[in-house]
Deoxyribose-phosphate aldolase
Amino acid sequence: MRRAELAAHLDVTLLRPGATAEDVRALCEQAMEVGAAAVCVSPSRVPDAVAVLQARDGAAVPVATVCGFPSGAHRTVVKVTEASTAVHEGAGEIDMVIDLGLVKDGAWDAVEADITAVQWELDQHPAVADGARPLVKVILETAALTDEEIVRCCRVAEAAGAAFVKTSTGFHPAGGASVHAVQLMASTVGGRLGIKASGGIADTAQALALIEAGATRLGVSRAAAVLADLTD
């Protein structure tokens, strides 16, 4: 795989709580330079990222943000408001965290309702009428789940209308992305949803292994290191 091809899989990510406007600018510049799939920033930084990309004619790089991050233990109305506000401010992709407690309770109807509410709200956005449906990526936190829970979460996310399932926030002590989890997710969704691997992706070899396992996006905070071993 060439450098540009791998770069096109990357959501270059900056979710550090103390990130500044200058940090966001640098992230957007990097995303445009390498040809990334998206930039992913904290909700309060969405306007900053949108402004930088528009000023640099980088509109082809969408802005992603997070919702219910990082715990997922937010009320659904909060997630809906957070996601809707971000799209209103120019985000095109929302990475929402499921409620892990509901998963562990086996409250699958409630897990699905949480995702469905966010997806429904975004489907009402005026951009949908123009064919630009905001993407919802459902963060499962796979390192904290059993295989059976991962499979069930994928099925619930698909039933709720999400576009992607995603491994991890990168903030959970249980860990981040793994090849096994991505393979399990890929076999469950069968190409009907995208798969985003994130959390702890540190180098080229790891990135390529996750793509080989079935990932269609990679969330990375160290894009330069991930691309370092490839050439154009």
The first helix runs from residue 3 to 7. The chain has a mean pLDDT of 96. The longest strand covers residues 10-14. Residues 3-227 form a domain with the TIM Barrel fold (CATH 3.20.20.70).
